């Protein structure tokens, strides 16, 4: 009886002693499995990319060069606070009302909690849109659709303004896009720096919902483009 108790105690002691090692081994296996699954997903996403981009998307992407350089030359971006001009003249029956700016109607909202970002999304990348939020590069996919939707925005010199902190995003970070009552969650899978004319970042995807964010880099000279790619969480 005593021998049996001794054996049981030895076994229990061995299990207790080996538990930390077994736990680490299990954690390692689970981490490797998760990494393998993630890498497989990314490989499938990139394999689905075509070697072409829409001509309209190409032209608008290249045109960002002038817009980004203008913001560098002007320094800090002015904010468009109002679309209605206030008249300083006293109104009379003969006064003619002054023209007002057309309202800016966003097509969605982008949120990135890691960098405390929340901006309106506009359809197009005109300077007027980019003074307020980010713009969808025309010729790329629509928000929430299968393909590659590209959003461009300024990178203000003021910390936290516009896409100033986009360089802080890392693989695995979440990006939220809201559009027409729908909410889309994306996970970052790649960040890199490219030349201003490298349109490969806009290549179509025929299988997945890919989101591509485009801004200037470095902030002071805007000689290159900082690109963040994310894929929708199905």
TrEMBL record:
Q: Which UniProt keywords apply?
A: Hydrolase
Establish whether keyword ATP-binding is in the entry.
no
Q: Fetch the InterPro entries from UniProt.
A: Sortase (IPR005754), Sortase_D_2 (IPR042000), Sortase_dom-sf (IPR023365)
Example GO molecular function term? hydrolase activity
Please give the superkingdom of this protein's source.
Bacteria
Catalytic residues at: 154 (proton donor/acceptor), 216 (acyl-thioester intermediate)
Q: Region labeled Disordered — which residues?
A: 79-101
Q: Which SUPFAM superfamilies match?
A: Sortase (SSF63817)
Recorded hits in CDD domains, A to Z, give: Sortase_D_2
What is the recorded name of this protein?
Class D sortase
Q: Which organism is it from?
A: Alkaliphilus serpentinus
């Amino acid at each position: 009886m005593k021998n049996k108790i001794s054996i049981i105690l030895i076994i229990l002691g061995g299990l207790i002693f080996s538990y930390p090692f077994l736990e680490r081994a299990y954690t390692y296996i689970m981490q490797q499995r998760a990494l393998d699954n993630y890498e497989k997903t990314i490989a499938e996403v990139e394999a689905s990319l075509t070697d072409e981009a829409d001509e309209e998307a190409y032209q608008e992407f290249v045109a960002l060069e002038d817009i980004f350089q203008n913001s560098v030359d002007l320094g800090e971006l002015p904010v468009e606070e109002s679309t209605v001009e206030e008249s300083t003249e006293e109104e009379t029956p003969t006064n003619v009302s002054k023209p007002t700016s057309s309202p800016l109607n966003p097509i969605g909202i982008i949120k990135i909690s890691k960098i405390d970002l929340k901006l309106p999304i506009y359809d197009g990348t005109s300077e007027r849109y980019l003074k307020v939020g980010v713009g969808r590069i025309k010729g790329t996919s629509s928000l929430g659709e299968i393909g590659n939707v590209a959003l461009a925005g300024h990178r203000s010199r003021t910390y936290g303004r516009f896409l100033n902190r986009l360089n802080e995003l890392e693989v695995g970070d979440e990006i939220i896009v809201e559009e027409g009552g729908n909410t889309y969650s994306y996970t970052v899978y790649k960040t890199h720096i490219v030349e201003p004319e490298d349109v490969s970042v806009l290549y179509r995807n025929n299988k997945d919902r890919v989101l591509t964010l485009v801004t200037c880099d470095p902030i002071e000279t805007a000689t290159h483009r900082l690109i963040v790619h994310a894929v929708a969480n199905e």
